[in-house]
Amino acid sequence: MARGAPLSARTALAGDGVRFVRTARAVREALAQRHRYAHVLRVARFAERLARAHRLDAGAARTAALLHDLARLYSDERLLRECAERGLAIDAFERAHPLVLHARLGAELARERFGVEDERVLSAIRKHTLADAVMSPLDAVVYLADGLEPGRAFPERAELAALAERDLDAALRGALASSIAYLRRRGLAVAPQTRAAAERYGIIVEAPEESSPA
Predict the structure, then answer these.
(1) Is 173 helix (H, G, I), strand (E, B) or coil?
(2) Is pLDDT at 190 greater than 90 in this prediction?
(3) Confidence (pTM)
(4) Of 69, 173, 186, 187, which sits 20 to 30 A from 119 (CA to CA)?
(5) DSSP assignment of 119-135, as one string?
(6) CA–CA distances in Å: residue 128 to residues 21, 53, 131, 209, 210
(7) Can you tell me the distance from the alpha carbon of 31 to that of 28, in angstroms, rounded to the nearest whole number?
(8) CA-based nearest residue to 130, from 195, 199, 80, 62
(9) Cα separation, 181 vs 188, whole angstroms
(10) Is residue 72 within 8 Å of residue 36, measured between CB atoms?
(11) How do residues 178-188 score in pLDDT, each as one tens digit?
């Protein structure tokens, strides 16, 4: 994929419809899966709506959302290899659950392949899967848009999506609580980053019952 001029989050996807279509097509080619691409478009639309509702940079939100899953379909081996090649530190949880690395690697690909230089956008891509103890409003918008887009199917989705348009903090707390409850019901580990984000919002995360790091 050829790299063009660096994408300005403010113009590339907000006001420049031609650039948006070009970028969307490049993302579609990179993903090579109709289902995943449809998800990305839904996330981009919802992220833009949330950004506008909270008077944030809608272009930055849509850029991050459009590019958030660039590495989502990579194999575990490829994720580990490409992160290592770029010198990205890999913690014990990530090594045991390589799929979560797609967020951090995706930010690198957004920079390398699409010329994204806006750190707000790159941060939102990095944090869209596990969240973090420190979340900017844009980070929260993309995290929530990814987890609450209309294609997701879980009981509280619609309620949390509506809440996100009114109160980002309350929606983030609810989404984190929902995610942790889901993991616990299935006996799965909670990532350190997710645990830290949850604790920041006063959510008690019980000690893990499995041997995987959490």
Answers:
(1) helix
(2) yes
(3) 0.87
(4) 173
(5) HHHHHHHHTTTT--SS-
(6) 23, 19, 6, 25, 25
(7) 5
(8) 195
(9) 10
(10) yes
(11) 999 999 999 99
